[in-house]
Write a structure and sequence with these properties.
This protein is of the alpha/beta class. It has helices spanning 5-18, 48-51, 100-112, 133-142, 230-237, 250-259, 269-290, 299-317, 329-336, 341-345, 347-382, 389-399, 403-411, 419-442, 448-457, 462-469, and strands at residues 22-24, 61-69, 86-94, 124-128, 149-151, 156-157, 162-173, 197-210, 216-229, 386-387, 416-417. Helix 11 runs antiparallel to helix 12 (389-399) and helix 12 (389-399) crosses helix 14 (419-442). The longest helix has 36 residues, at 347-382. The structure holds adenosine-5'-triphosphate and magnesium ion (3 copies).
Length: 473
């Protein structure tokens, strides 16, 4: 079937509407009343209020296409076919209403019926938790061949105390030509780390409560929570090599070609990574700023800063010297306008924010890159394997290089960064700032300068939070 991304999104929502679900709008990326999460990272993250009983939904059957950000995947972007920082998660939810049988039967109908996706059953594989006999039975009753049902020990969704249960993931066989591994590689199966079997959907059967004492008690009211990556589904429909060769990303890639010094997508695998990173990050920063976040040195703001700076460095690799990322904001707005008209409406404001961050980084970027290249050369020459922590800190502090960016840049050269050394330097600076502050405070001085120093050093600590948050689905 030839379908656009907008049609596919709508088809999913319409299918579950036809099964009695209410369509929930895509919620803000900035979590509301949830200090455990930096960003909304899945559909279910916005539904916690229903699942924990604090809000009772009018209809216990809900469906949505939820914009989500996962920072734990930043470094995968551009290197795998399937990972983004911002993506849309299609989902259907049952708040104590239907359970495993309906969830499985409907999933199969959506995927294979000619009225809906119409995918070839031969190309679909389901993983199930080994003890979950019900799931195995329901998949078979729906029509899945037994040799397409695969047991996987890690198909159990559990984030500590609270609702938990087995899950079932659906993989689409993209064919041998997508294989990045040898045919006999042990990872070459649905669920392994490979590019052939694409994970498109995760269906969670939350049926236990993980008790404080570590035991699992059956829940009186069982829930369904699912997540399907829109971009991956679109890549299948549009027969794209990766998520990027689809109507969701090509407009930004093509615009970036025009900004470059004549570089073309699909000509050099190394440069393709840069095109993909830019296309991906342009979406994430546009949506994040549209939802009210701003670049800064901590929390969400640091994520935006890191994404913008990573995109700008990748722009340099394509021969782009001035600010350009801000020009992708209206392109993103145009691509997404059917479901997210508010992005295009705010495009001028978002572009202004992006441009000022780009300009600021561009001021020091040429010198920063020169220093970094010197450091790499020096390190290689001395036979060392690591960039000094103090040097990485100087790059951060003076030239605005997030340490993750330095790490990624040198990784390509086979060199790592002494991150403990970096942290130690960061801490020294924080201590200096604290001392200066307390001295000045005791004299009753409050200067803007000090407030700036404070925010410039308070960025550590988001990573742990984020890793925890990434386990929601
Ligand atoms: P993967 O193993 O490919 O990293 P996952 O198991 O971490 O995916 P889930 O947490 O199960 O992903 O999320 C549900 C669905 O959301 C996935 O099946 C996939 O289709 C989609 N998805 C997850 N992470 C990403 C991402 N970074 N970019 C695009 N889609 C994603
Ligand atoms: Mg993942
Ligand atoms: Mg997975
Ligand atoms: Mg999964």
């Amino acid at each position: 079937k030839q379908l656009s991304s907008s049609q596919i999104r709508q088809m999913y929502l319409d299918f579950f509407k036809s099964k009695g679900h209410t369509i929930e709008p895509s919620a803000s990326l900035v979590p509301v009343d949830d200090p455990t999460l930096l960003w909304i990272n899945s559909g279910v993250a916005t539904m916690k209020k229903y699942f924990n009983g604090s809000v009772v939904p009018k209809n216990p059957r809900l469906t949505s296409s939820q914009k989500s950000i996962r920072t734990n995947d930043i470094e995968n972007v551009g290197r795998t076919a399937r990972h983004h920082t911002l993506f849309e998660m299609l989902g259907n939810f049952s708040v104590g209403d239907y359970f495993k049988k309906e969830a499985i039967t409907w999933a199969w109908e959506l995927l294979t019926s000619d009225d809906w996706f119409g995918w070839d059953p031969e190309l679909l594989y389901m993983t199930v938790y080994p003890q979950d006999d019900d799931a195995k039975q329901f998949w078979q009753e729906a029509g899945v061949q037994p040799d397409h049902i695969i047991e996987a020990e890690d198909n159990f969704w559990d984030i500590g105390e609270g609702p938990s249960g087995p899950d079932s993931e659906i993989f689409y066989d993209r064919g041998k030509s997508f294989n990045n591994l040898a045919d006999d590689d042990p990872e070459n199966y649905p669920g392994g780390e490979n590019e052939r079997y694409l994970e498109v959907w995760n269906i969670v059967f939350s049926q236990f409560n993980h008790e404080p004492d570590g035991s699992y008690k059956p829940l009186p009211r069982k829930n369904i929570d699912t997540g399907m990556g829109l971009e991956r589904v679109v890549s299948v429909f549009q027969n794209a090599k990766t998520n990027f060769e689809t109507d969701l990303f090509l407009p930004m890639i093509n615009a970036t070609e025009d900004f470059s010094d004549g570089k073309k997508y699909n000509a050099d695998p190394k440069l393709d990574i840069s095109f993909k990173v830019i296309a991906d990050h342009s979406r994430a920063i546009t949506f994040a700023i549209g939802d009210g976040a701003l670049p800064s040195n901590d929390g969400r703001g640091y994520v935006i800063r890191r994404l913008i700076r990573r995109a700008v460095v990748n722009g340099r690799k394509l021969g782009i010297n001035g600010a350009f990322l801000y020009k992708l904001v209206p392109v993103v707005g145009e691509v997404m306008k059917s479901y997210y008209p508010e992005v295009l409406e705010q495009a001028d404001y978002i572009a202004k924010v992006v441009k000022s961050e780009e300009d600021r980084f561009n001021e020091t970027l040429t010198d920063g890159l020169a220093l970094l290249n010197d450091l790499v050369a020096k390190t290689k020459k001395s036979g060392a394997k690591e960039i000094d922590g103090a040097d990485a800190f100087k790059l951060y502090d003076t030239y605005g290089f997030p340490v993750e960016l330095t790490r990624e840049y040198t990784l390509d050269e086979g060199i790592t960064v002494d991150e403990d050394g970096f942290k130690a330097e960061m801490k020294k600076q924080q201590d200096r700032a604290r001392n200066a502050r307390s001295k000045n405070e005791s004299m009753g001085v409050q200067s803007d300068l000090l407030i700036n120093v404070k925010s410039a050093s308070e960025y550590v600590g988001y990573t742990q939070l984020d890793v925890k948050a990434a386990k929601v689905t």
